[in-house]
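histidine kinase: structure tokens wanted.
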Amino acid sequence: MEQLIEDFNLTFQLKNDAIPIQIEQKNLVNVIKDILEQLKGLSESKNKMFSFEANKEEIFLNMDARYLKRAFENLIANSIKHNPPETKIIVIVHQDLSHPRQIRVLIEDDGVGMDQETVDHLFDRYLRGTSASSNNSGTGLGMAIARQVIIAHGGDLHIDSKPQLGTQFNIIFPLELEERI
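Answer:
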């Protein structure tokens, strides 16, 4: 119940641009590595295969690490919870300095995937996974929170998913925005 209240409060604050984001420059590579190490310890992660890649050891992003960590945790946990054993989960962080300059984070799994209707409503509040292999614990707010936090950081989030082929979350942060913060 406490988690539901906390999640509901956070989504309300994000929706109303009332979240007290405290921006500081952090190494996104380390932030995501830490998240992966933490999530690998979950019981649902026991039979999953994880891969992490980055094109640089240090990719700095102006962020509120507490909230952005929460967003990435929600996205990666979605791939863990809603897929069967032996699912491969790949996380790639890539800084592209060509035009447009951007940081791209790709979270991809080869799991059960989603039909288009589910993808279209994935960021709706209170939607919870319903696949046979899924763990239906949670508040149903995680995906909405992830999207709102990414947008609050000037980013964008796209999903590509096909049943039985897996899901890909593609997050882009423009670097031009970074220089203005």
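The beta strands are 24-27, 49-54, 60-63, 88-96, 102-109, 156-162, 166-174. The helical segments are 2-15, 28-40, 65-81, 116-121, 142-152, 175-180.

Cheers.
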